[in-house]
């Protein structure tokens, strides 16, 4: 089955970036000349995804406004002779049409598994991509496409992986690798969350990006049902994947490319700086500033 649907959970409050995110959703903070969530949407559209569900919460209307076509603004820009700006605004609206973006309000217990389950109820019983909206990947082949390719080889759930320095293991979920298939693809039996370097089961980190299969959705549903019975803890996607992986095949795909996390101030500034340095107009200006 070819993957054509994707979920972007965008209901978080961006607490690690406060007070910057007090009024501006973290997904709308710019990286280069685009808000970070637009990088994710572009990646999905470039990978052939035709149904994107963005799960939001209160105060996220700027996301909808950004992708909504604005014919009046385009017409005004063209009348003023600002053709390049008009084309850029029009293209963003076209992204929403190409990706058939729909929005869904999050409801249920806290945790990043909840928005995935919310969206799955509307997307049917088929595999889907899940990408976080605060990741930016720079790659010749989009990360989403690499995950889709891995799914088509394995017909199983897939996690995006990157090589890591063992000293940084306490920042990530680290996969338990059972078998190396080749070309960066490996079968895994679970994740160990933030282990000490001596306890890390491999030299890879699980980063943003998943192919989620119906079996994982079923496990998420069990977790949410249990939460409503006991109302303790949180519902996490990785917990469902871990349980599912004990009896079902799950794979990790090492992503070829560069990953930028924008979820905290230092990493956000790094992503901004790297994007600017790569820009043909802004890069020389910044290099001159550093030299001075």
UniProtKB/TrEMBL annotation:
UniProt EC number: 2.7.7.9
Keyword Nucleotidyltransferase: yes
Catalysed reactions, semicolon-separated: alpha-D-glucose 1-phosphate + UTP + H(+) = UDP-alpha-D-glucose + diphosphate
Recorded GO MF terms: UTP:glucose-1-phosphate uridylyltransferase activity
Family annotation (InterPro entries): GalU_uridylyltTrfase_bac/arc (IPR005771), NTP_transferase_dom (IPR005835), Nucleotide-diphossugar_trans (IPR029044)
Record has Calcium as a keyword: no
Top-level taxon in the UniProt lineage: Bacteria
Record's keyword terms, sorted: Nucleotidyltransferase, Transferase
GO biological process, one term: UDP-alpha-D-glucose metabolic process
Domain named Nucleotidyl transferase: residues: 5-272
Record-linked PANTHER family: UTP--GLUCOSE-1-PHOSPHATE URIDYLYLTRANSFERASE
Family: Belongs to the UDPGP type 2 family.
Protein name (Swiss-Prot/TrEMBL): UTP--glucose-1-phosphate uridylyltransferase
Species per Swiss-Prot/TrEMBL record: Nocardia aurantiaca
Upper taxonomic lineage: Bacteria, Bacillati, Actinomycetota, Actinomycetes, Mycobacteriales
